[in-house]
Amino acid sequence: MSDTEPGEVLPDLLEVDLEELRTIQHPVLREVLEGLRERAERPSEMLWGFSRCM
Amino acid sequence: MRATTGGRHGGAVVSGQTAPVPASTIPSPFRQFIVKVHGRCNLACRYCYLYEGPDHTWRTRPAAAPSEVLTRTAERIAEHARAHGLPTVSLVLHGGEPLLAGADTLARFTDDVRARVPADCIVQATVQTNGTLLTEKRVAVLARHGIRIGISLDGGLPEHNARRLDHAGRPSWPAAVRGARLVAGRFPASYAGILTVVDPVLDPVETYESLLELGPPALDLLLPDSNWSAPPPHWEGARHGAWLCAVFDRWWTAGHRETRVRLFEECLALLLGLPAATEYLGLAAFDALVVETDGSIEQVDSLKSAYEGASRTGLDVFRHAFDEALDHPGVAARQAGVASLADRCRVCPLVEVCGGGHYAHRYRAGHGFRNPSVYCADLQLFIRHVAARLARDTGVASPVPVSIEGVTP
């Protein structure tokens, strides 16, 4: 799927089931989803917005 | 698992089919406290957003935060945490170069904050440093007191850091890389990661791979603090966006997650309808506050790239509780979601992911901050790229016909 041309369409990802996504064999995404799973359950506790620090 | 109702928002405009979520009018308490423990820096980086920009307020403030400022700040943090029942707060030891205050001072202050907050409130402490003053002894102190270390570098090679010079014009790289390797090798549990400002003239993959060599558990890639009245160098042609896309592809196809790249993971989270933690994307209420070396309560430094005094609130820790800062118009604007955005942003199908970009990047002299980001084209390029990769490589989403071009206000 190309993505950089004018008139590019965007995929609708909001209805994706996160558990189903974790079964997909994409190693980077699988690791990312481990962290996102907790975020879905406890949205704000561990999210820090300030950008000028790690 | 489908996320709980509170975890994922429905009806995002990314699909092009529903309206943006209305902004809340109830202020979100501050949860992140950036404390300028020292207001000067041992470096004189030529592009520094703080010392080379239009704001010069640092010149009139104490170099080091006096003990009475630190004590009062700790009291105010505890007061705010107690008033709002905060389960966790983030304490960011910042500057200037915070290690100029001394590792022992940082440790004492952090301990004081932890002693004063309610017993069930966790204080996550981080120091953000240029790395040049990291020694075994100092890092040991920080580690012992539960302070994680973030390092600011522009890449993992000497030539990437050619503009990071000391006041005598000497490269900071030898000392900085020594500090980074010390933390990575001897104190990995204290290593928060590396912060890098994007320079589109540098090779993106080379820059990323050179940073990996320093073993960071996380990276963040920041767009230079710029705005419509002071655009960044090499702005034309969405070069910053293309640079980010190139690094994303390298990171995404690595076969395993080599490091966490905050900007990328926050973009993925937003595309999946989850809350995000970055000033660069999303519509989440911004809940960070700064205390300067003289006790002034301010908004974040990046606003200073717009104009002199842009971050000022007129409040200070001696006379005002942090709650009073919640009523400041600038603070409220950053918690208002779509209500603060330019009209063009409000109707953009990317708004729930982009969020209008970093607040400071929207500034235009005479027009305030209600504009698209100066990086609008870059953000569109990057977000579409990540969305397409996510959809393509997981095969779970079908395209929806919406798009919008990058705009100028």
TrEMBL record, chain A:
InterPro entries per UniProt: FxSxx-COOH
Superkingdom as given in the UniProt entry: Bacteria
Name recorded for this polypeptide: FXSXX-COOH protein
